[in-house]
Structures are given as C-alpha cells and as structure tokens.
Amino acid sequence: MHAQTEPPQPAAPSRGPRIGRPRRAAGPRAGSRAGRRAGRRGRVVAPVVSAVLVAAVAGACSSAPSGGGKPDRAGGPAGQPPVSRAGAAPSPAKRSPGAVVAGRRQPVKVAVPHAASGRYVTVPGAAAPPGGSRGPVVRYSVQMERGLPFDAAAFAAEVHRVLNDPRSWGHGGAMRFQRVAGGPVRFVVALSSPALTDRLCLPLRTGGELSCRSGIRSIINARRWGIGAPTYGRDLATYREYVINHEVGHALGHGHQQCPGPGRRAPVMVQQTKSLQGCRPNPWPFPG
Known about the structure:
globular, Collagenase (Catalytic Domain), DUF3152, six-stranded mixed β-sheet, DUF3152 domain-containing protein
C-alpha cells in the first residue's frame, strides 16, 4: 500500500517591492501653528504663480510685436515693415498734384528708367490746326517709346498746345501745326528714353541728359521731360514748353544762339538745359 499524500498546494506568489503612496516629507502637522502659517502662504503664492503662467502663455501665443520695440529706419518696429494705423501695410501713395510755381500748377515729376523698349509707337488720332488763323499748315506726328511711364495722348496734346501757342513758331501767322498719325509730315516729336536718345543722337553726345534733333525726329529726352532741368528749378511746366520749342526749332531750320546779355531773356535756341549763360530762362521763340 502506498501512503496517502495530500495534493500539492499552489505556491503563494512572491511579493515584489511594495509600491504605495510616496511617503510624505515630514512637515508641520495640520492644525498646528506652523501648519496654519504654511497654509496662508500657499493661498497667497498660488494666485501669483497662476498670473505669471497666464502672462507667459499669452506672450508666447501673440504674433504681433509689442509697441515698445525700437523703430527701424522704415518707421516700424525693428525688422518689420511700416504699418498703417489699421494694422495693414500701407498702400502705395497716390500722386498728389504738383506744387504751384510762378503761378502755375506743376506736373508731378516722374523718375524715368534709363532704357525702355527701344521701339516707337505713333500716337493715334489727329489734332486740327487752330481755326480762323492765317499761315500755311505744317503736318507733324508724335511718337513715344514703348515702356515709358507717361500717357501718350497727354504728351501729344501738350505738344500740340505748345506749338499752336501764339508765342511759338506760328507767331504772327507764320504757320499752323496739324498733328496726324500717318502720311507725309514735316517732323516727328518723339519722347525717348535716355538710352534711345543717346543712340539716335550720335554723333552728338547727349550723355543720357540732353535732347536733340536726329533726321526727321525732334527727340525729347524722357528724363528731362520727367524731372526738368536745374536751370528751370522747380518750374517743370515751363521747361517742357522750352524743350518742345527748342527741338522743333531745329526741325524748322533754326540753329543755336547765345545769350545776348546778362539778365536778358534767353533766346529759345540757347541750349538752356545746359546753361543760361547769364540770361533768364525763356521757353518761347516770341515771348513778347
């Protein structure tokens, strides 16, 4: 007979390291005087910490620079473009009317690139000579180089106004000017970039600054048309009258003249863009 044995009992699971609540560091007991003081300090510090955290988060999330930054040369905070009061980048400034000089409202001065397309376009349309006037009709046309920052129709209208002014070359019924867009013409008034002016005026040296006559064309340097000349100061309107009359004068057969004396009116065929030679500026062939 075999001895009766009891079935084996499962072994009790071994206990790992006891994990419980972290043991609190020794501190003042609740209800003690030290405990009450610590509680009061906790109530004061907690709102201060919360306010600091809120301010830090708000500063980190804000994308707009503060108003206290040092302005850069553009007038806004350093490294930022200038902004309008509404917070948006300012739109390009509109051209305001020119100042009044010598009793005349001036055209707005325009900066002109050194070179444009190099190709002329004839201004379309026509303008009749003055009605009721005597004198033979002189046909001419107006061209403008593509790419210049001017209105072609406005330029053509100004040329026609100047040429048919009684103080211009038609004075006393000598001639009347008719603008046409095609057919035979006596001359062409051509507004040209400095680069094209220099090329077409050779062998004359215009240096990007002067105008000239070249063949049938009376070439107006667009830089001078845009900003005038130091000899005329701020009076761009009067300088434009001069440069038209001077270059058309060459087309009509007139050569350069000299100043007749200090303080006198400069004849229109004096190279007034370069120097007045002691004379006063004058844009007209017959200024009286």
